[in-house]
Design goal:
By secondary structure, the protein is of the alpha/beta class. The protein folds into two domains: 104 residues, P-loop containing nucleotide triphosphate hydrolases (Rossmann fold); 53 residues, no CATH class. It has seven helices and four strands; from the N terminus they run βαβαβαβαααα.
Length: 178
């Protein structure tokens, strides 16, 4: 967990429920800065269809967590948490409202992140298996290495989940809890 500023509020909820507009109003009325906890708003140029507030809509409110990487770059909750730390560091004593619908980002902010960083060589190895053998190849490896745990995967048809499970298995010897 990161050290929060003097006062931090969290405004979370489903897509298209007006969180951004409410956060903007609170920021204007109460003197808050805004930290976006939206997984799509971190990408530069993804302004249409994401409800990213324009510079005009932001006015003089300091915003953080927007336009951090290009859409071609990988991004993670860990990287978002680094951006959140920076936002807190540059706004000491200022009230901060964290708003968005990416629950993992908010959970990382309030509870920290479990797990280990991924070794790039391990990630490349499993991506290569996926490219050569597809979903069935990843599933087979997981069934062989952790048969009981494989049965409990929440989505064994999602390649990203399978890749992450294999990376976690290599790093810790277990599959991540779900």
């Amino acid at each position: 967990m990161i050290a929060p500023p003097t006062e931090a509020w969290i405004l979370a909820g489903a897509t298209a429920t007006g969180k951004s507009a409410v956060a903007q109003r609170i920021a204007q009325d109460e003197g808050f800065s805004i930290l976006s906890a939206d997984a799509m708003l971190v990408y530069k140029g993804m302004d249409i269809g994401t409800a990213k507030p324009s510079p005009e809509e932001r006015g003089n409110i300091p915003y953080y967590g927007l336009d951090l990487v290009s859409p071609s770059e990988p991004f993670s909750a860990g990287r978002w948490l680094d951006a959140a730390r920076e936002a807190c560091a540059v706004t000491p004593g200022r009230k901060l409202i964290v708003t968005g619908g990416t629950g993992l980002y908010i959970k990382a902010l309030t509870d920290g992140l479990d797990g280990s960083g991924v070794d790039p060589e391990v990630r490349l190895r499993w991506r290569t298996v996926f490219e050569k053998e597809g979903l069935a190849g990843l599933q087979q490896v997981l069934r062989e290495r952790a048969p009981a745990a494989f049965q409990t995967l929440d989505n064994p048809l999602n390649p990203r989940r399978l890749l992450r499970a294999l990376e976690h298995l290599d790093a810790t010897g277990t599959l991540p809890e779900q």
